[in-house]
Write a structure and sequence with these properties.
The chain has 427 residues and is mainly β. 0% of the residues lie in helices and 45% in strands. It is built from no helices and 34 strands. Strands 9, 21, 22, 24, 25, 26, 27, 28, 29, 30, 31, 32, 33 and 34 form a 14-stranded mixed β-sheet that branches.
Length: 427
């Protein structure tokens, strides 16, 4: 029997460390040996282990990763079955300012939705006089219930004295019930307040005048809040103390001649004019509002250079309320008249908070000299910032002389004529 020629077994580690040249026995505790059929056996160990580092420091090695988010539950970050791959399943990841943690109801359920401290949207509702109707396009006259209705969304940011939190709201309301606590002919600021977990729509104290607040506002992180602690009223006999900055200002209302009653009237046509009364103003989500006031009295006469209200009527006007002096208003007055002489014209204008002056910034007379009677039309325009609080714009008129009376036309008894006054603003 001949001598067997057995080649020596060579053992090496791929990168040369550690030195295994003197190894005489291999022990495989976790892995598999594979023979390629050509004299080479490959040792394959199990899947690689995860190394977890926290703030730059290696943590205890482990094969599986099972992350659990205390707020949102298990499964946001998971390990695959082979322990070789980590899957991250996050739809939203928010970081608060500095080292502050994100807290609150991350599943968007409940009342306290985000509580993210630094991110908060504008409030999503509007003050209105009709439930579930955030934008009024028709009259809502002489109402005793005020609503804060959902409009763009159902979130509202509120300050708790330290941080801003975001809350989900359903429609809020105040039943004023014609209560004397909302005095007649007065302005009241409106706020949303978190009363121990219950969101309330409240009003502050009556303004000291039509154009001056009783309780001042302050801008906190870009949003208007109550500057000092105040009493907020949310029912005829119910109040709550609202700490400084903890009431989010959402608008202002005006009561009518009846206590606890407010109104929204968009004008129209009537003898002596159908006035506009816009007594609800929103601090957020304002929309454009147009009002037309038309006097369908057939004709009337005037012969004086003294400026007066159109047709000597105080209802040929629009009265409106602005809680902040941030937006302008526009008005246009169109009238038509008949004069016995080309030198006697009626001037139609616009009075701002007055009926004895013409504050129009643009006005034009058109006199037809080809008509013996002297038929003429007059157009005037106003645009400006009358200011904070309650104001009115009135259609006014006066004559260029006193030679002869001018006949002014409302509609002249014709379906083809209707003079009037037009107003637009944002509320």
């Amino acid at each position: 029997m001949g001598k067997l020629n057995i080649p020596p077994l060579r053992v090496n580690e791929a990168d040369g460390s550690p030195d295994v040249s003197g190894v005489t026995r291999l022990v495989v505790s976790n892995g598999t040996l594979t023979d390629d059929g050509s004299g080479q056996v490959t040792l394959a160990t199990g899947a690689g282990q995860h190394t977890i580092r926290e703030n730059g420091t290696d943590q205890t090695a482990r094969a599986g990763l099972n992350f659990v988010d205390a707020s949102a539950g298990a499964g946001l970050i998971t390990d695959d079955a082979g322990n070789a791959e980590t899957e991250v399943n996050l739809n939203l990841y928010l970081l608060a300012d500095g080292a502050r943690a994100l807290t609150g109801d991350l599943d968007m359920g409940g009342n306290d939705v985000l509580n993210v401290r630094n991110y908060y949207p504008d409030p999503g509702g509007r003050l209105t006089l009709t439930s579930a109707t955030p934008v009024l396009v028709v009259d809502a006259a002489d109402q005793t219930t005020l609503y804060y209705a959902l409009y763009k969304h159902d979130l509202v940011p509120l300050y708790d004295g330290t941080n801003w939190d975001v809350f989900r709201f359903t429609e809020l309301s105040i039943a004023m019930a014609a209560s004397a606590n909302w005095a007649a002919n007065s302005n009241f600021d409106c706020y949303i307040y978190n009363d121990g977990g219950t969101l309330r729509l409240v009003t502050g104290a009556a303004w000291t005048s039509d154009t001056a607040r009783n309780e001042s506002l302050t801008r906190l992180n870009g949003r208007w809040t109550n500057n000092a602690s105040m009493t907020g009223r949310y029912a005829a006999a119910s109040t709550v103390t609202v700490g400084a900055n903890q009431g989010l200002y959402v608008g202002t209302i005006r009561t009518t001649a009846a206590a606890g009653t407010t109104t929204w009237e968009v004008g129209g046509v009537a003898a002596n004019g159908n006035p506009g009364l816009l007594y609800v103003w929103n601090a957020y989500n304002r929309v454009g509002v147009s009002v037309s006031v038309r006097d369908n009295t057939n004709t009337w006469t005037y012969q004086s250079a003294t400026v007066r209200a159109k047709n000597n009527s105080t209802t040929n006007r629009v009265t409106y309320l602005y809680g902040l002096n941030e937006d302008d208003v526009h008005a246009e007055h169109i009238n038509q008249g008949l004069s016995s002489t080309s030198t006697e014209l009626l001037i139609g204008g616009i009075g701002v908070d007055v009926t004895n002056a013409n504050n129009a910034v643009i006005f034009l007379n058109e006199l037809s000299t080809t008509v013996a009677a002297g038929v003429f039309a007059h157009t005037s325009y106003y645009v400006g910032y009358p200011g904070l609080g309650l104001h009115f714009l009135s259609a006014v008129e006066h004559c260029t002389g006193v030679v002869a009376a001018v006949t002014v036309r409302g509609d002249a008894g014709s379906a083809n004529i209707q003079t009037g006054f037009w107003f637009s603003g944002t509320f």
